Amino acid sequence: MPAGPPSTDPCAAQLQAANDLEGRIDAHNAQPHTFTLPDQQGAYDAYNNEARQLNSEKDAAVANLKACGDAVNKLLNNGSVKPPTQDRINKIQDGIDSIPSGFKPPATAPKQGGVVTVMPELKPLWRALRSGNPGTTQSIGNVPFQGKTWPQTGTPNPVYPAGSGQTIPAGRFGNPAVSADHIVPIAEILYLPGFLKLPPALMYQVVRAPVNLQWLSSLENSIKSSGSAARILGADTQWIQEQGNLQNSLRGQLTDLIQQLLKTLGSQP
Fold it and tell me: Whole-structure pTM over 0.90, yes or no?
């Protein structure tokens, strides 16, 4: 029987594993379990051994489901992610399926001119993950990232030194011209250890994780692109250093959460 479409639920595999264990336990409990001892000692021992094994597997499955939920909550960072459509998840799966068999990403994301390079083998997946991500100020709303809502129009642009006169410009719909910037770029997330082993719904969660977003003026966001804050000419040196520290911290956090998610799936990076 052909497999159905990939799930849009990030912890679907862990939930299915826990439900499957419940079914196996129900089947076990439905077996005859009245024994005459010592004549049926062997059957009695086998029944109890199976019960202990099933209970152990159930405990592990429940722990994996909880660990998946905990990791997703850390990615959300008290925020939220718009649920994916089945079409979006299907396109991510198509991107995964397009990666050649045996392909292994480099240990370090390749760069050219300070910008992360997306290898040809990963471009279909990158496009599927990047499309509509994370959205405009109009679609997201003034939600906090890194504990801060978006800077208001006409206020000093924190990218530049104090007194520079650089301010946040006005955007469309009366909102300030700012964007939800990926601190660790999506292009780099592709190369984080184990990311390519995640199912589509978890990939979707990781690349849209509010924990990895910040508000940044739209022009500077486009200049930064898939590189570092140092690409922005005239940027405040202290701000650049803070951005580098933040990116390093988030890179480590995302890597740890990916590994945690893989363990809940019974996989390793």
Answer: yes
